[in-house]
């Protein structure tokens, strides 16, 4: 097989995998996992976001500088910021070899290519008479 043919097969393989990852169910599952894992990292980001707004945590309650509890809108904004940051900063991304591209979480292309190339080499050996 020529290198160009192998490269084309690898590109096709990656395209198929990425298309399967675009499903709303898959994205919902991946985002839920990444945004919550690990929980201690999410909590650290939450504390940073709370501090950014000049607030503090008392237990699970966010308290504004004037001593009042944060409004539901303020809490939602903080949680939204934490969710967004988790999609780009969560250690789960590296552990699961995922990356955010636009609004989609996809498997890391380099890792996919390595895996696909290894599988392609394996199938080529099988086609040529078996694995040694």
Largest sheet: 2 strands, antiparallel
- Shape designation: elongated
In quaternary terms, these chains amount to single chain
Helix content: 55-70%
| Helix/strand order, N-terminal first | HHHEEHHEEH
Give the termini distance in whole angstroms. Answer: 20 Å
Residues in β-strands, percent:
5-15%
Radius of gyration: 22 Å
Low-confidence segments: none
- Report the structural category: mainly alpha
Number of domains: 2
Secondary structure tally: strands: 4
Strand order of the largest sheet: 1-2
Which whole number gives the mean pLDDT? 89
Number of helices: 6
Give an overview of the whole structure.
The chain has 132 residues and is mainly α. The chain has 2 domains: 1-26 and 97-127; 39-89, no CATH class. The protein has helices spanning 3-21, 24-36, 39-52, 72-89, 91-95, 109-127, and strands at residues 56-58, 61-63, 98-101, 104-107. α1 (3-21) crosses α6 (109-127). The relative contact order is 0.14. The model has no long low-confidence stretch (mean pLDDT 89).
Q: Top keywords for this entry?
A:
about 130 residues, mainly alpha, two-stranded antiparallel ribbon, elongated
List the helices and strands and how they pair.
Elements: H1 3-21, H2 24-36, H3 39-52, E1 56-58, E2 61-63, H4 72-89, H5 91-95, E3 98-101, E4 104-107, H6 109-127
Antiparallel strand pairs: 1-2, 3-4
Helix pairs in contact: 1-6, 2-4, 3-4
What's a quick, concise take on this entry?
This protein is mainly α and 132 residues long. The protein contains six helices and four strands. It has helices at residues 3-21, 24-36, 39-52, 72-89, 91-95, 109-127, and strands at 56-58, 61-63, 98-101, 104-107.
């Amino acid at each position: 097989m020529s290198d160009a043919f192998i490269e084309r097969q690898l590109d096709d393989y990656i395209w198929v995998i990425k298309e399967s990852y675009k499903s709303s169910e898959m994205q919902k599952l991946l985002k839920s996992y990444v945004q919550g894992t690990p929980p201690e990292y999410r909590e650290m980001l939450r504390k940073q976001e709370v501090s950014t707004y000049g607030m503090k945590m008392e237990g699970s309650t966010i308290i504004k500088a004037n001593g009042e509890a944060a409004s539901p809108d303020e809490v939602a904004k903080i949680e939204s910021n934490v969710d967004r940051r988790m999609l780009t900063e969560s250690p789960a991304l590296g552990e699961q070899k995922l990356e955010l591209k636009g609004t989609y979480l996809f498997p890391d292309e380099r890792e996919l290519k390595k895996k696909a190339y290894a599988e392609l080499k394996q199938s080529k050996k099988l086609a040529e008479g078996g694995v040694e």
